[in-house]
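Priority: medium. Attachment 1 of 2:
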């Protein structure tokens, strides 16, 4: 049978391209390139990534990607076990009465199970009501250098330490959106939103609140949050290095401007994963971090100057940029699209700074 892996390897060697060059040009890790050429299908986290990598690598080598994908699918079908329904079996005569008896037994078991589950479900609902009622008693949480990760309920109080005396934030609502009553007024936070809050309305924001879970219909279930003191050593972000910000001409022509200002400052990227994805990022030219994410995962990245992102499936992740109190949602890419892009500050000729999304070829 024709081998898609052999096509890839032969074409690469024919063009005298080594694995390091192919990795750099395609942004596909070397281990995945070798797995494609050796047809090691189990090396990939999922079929979507294998097909995406195969398509991009084939096009990079100048091969017909559709033909190679069809070879891969043919190989997959060939290696699949024969369905049991196609195997001819001799059925003994005594099987039929046994089957009828077993079916009757199963029906009785199903009826019994439904009855038992109904009774247990009523008991569980009663227990759940009791648990939720217990959570209604207000709790007090004093914030410290350690981030607070808790499920908050209506009436709970967050205590924010201050040189002028402790300030209190009361949870006013936990349905659809988190409502926090502060000395400066009411704050509303939506699901997956990260918000900086000025508690006293005087000296800038004191805390950062991230809402990771909340019910749209049941306030008794509370809200799962992460709360961080901004003046904590854990949360201080290095100032933006103005000298290292590239000019517009250095940044290239292909770019999407998401924010403009007279100054550059740190920003946050919230990454919400809608599907499986191999994801790598590098913040402010520091060490690269790579991991495998699945649907429902959330990653928060804080940067001073910029972030470089490598994404194996651009449709699997949704980005939200938070800077200077503003929130910008980026468009979701195509399924199976492997991309590399920078999100960073650039300086224009008029002296203004622009936060831009710049694709890397």
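Attachment 2 of 2:
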């Amino acid at each position: 049978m024709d081998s898609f892996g052999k096509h890839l390897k032969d074409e690469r060697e024919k063009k005298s391209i080594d694995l390091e060059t192919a990795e750099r040009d395609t942004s596909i890790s070397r281990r995945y390139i070798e797995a494609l050429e050796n047809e090691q299908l189990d090396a990939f986290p999922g079929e979507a990534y294998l097909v995406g990598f195969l398509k991009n690598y084939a096009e990079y080598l100048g091969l017909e990607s559709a033909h190679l994908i069809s070879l891969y699918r043919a190989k997959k079908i060939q290696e699949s076990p024969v369905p049991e329904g196609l195997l001819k079996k001799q059925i003994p005569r005594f099987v039929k009465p046994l089957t009828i008896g077993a079916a009757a037994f199963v029906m009785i078991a199903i009826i019994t199970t439904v009855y038992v589950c109904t009774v247990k479900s009523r008991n569980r609902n009663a227990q759940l009501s009791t648990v939720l009622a217990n959570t209604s008693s207000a709790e007090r949480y004093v914030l410290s250098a350690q981030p607070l990760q808790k499920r908050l309920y209506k009436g709970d109080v967050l205590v924010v330490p201050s040189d002028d005396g402790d300030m209190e934030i009361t949870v006013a609502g936990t349905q659809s959106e988190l409502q926090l009553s502060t000395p400066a007024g009411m704050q509303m936070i939506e699901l997956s939103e990260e918000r900086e809050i000025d508690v006293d309305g005087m000296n800038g924001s004191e805390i950062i609140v991230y809402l990771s879970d909340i019910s749209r219909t049941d306030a008794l279930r509370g809200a799962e949050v992460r709360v961080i003191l901004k003046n904590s050593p854990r949360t201080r972000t290095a100032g933006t290095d103005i000298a290292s910000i590239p000019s517009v001409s250095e940044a290239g022509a292909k770019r999407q401007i998401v924010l403009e200002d007279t100054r550059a400052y740190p920003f946050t990227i919230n990454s919400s994963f809608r599907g499986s994805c191999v994801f790598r990022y590098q913040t402010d030219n520091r060490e690269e971090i790579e991991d495998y994410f699945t649907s429902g995962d959330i990653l928060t990245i804080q940067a001073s100057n910029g972030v470089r992102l490598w994404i194996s499936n651009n449709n699997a992740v949704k980005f939200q940029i938070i800077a200077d109190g503003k929130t910008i949602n980026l468009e979701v890419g195509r399924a199976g699209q492997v991309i590399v892009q920078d999100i960073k500050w650039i300086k224009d000729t008029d002296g203004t700074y622009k936060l831009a999304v710049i694709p890397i070829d």
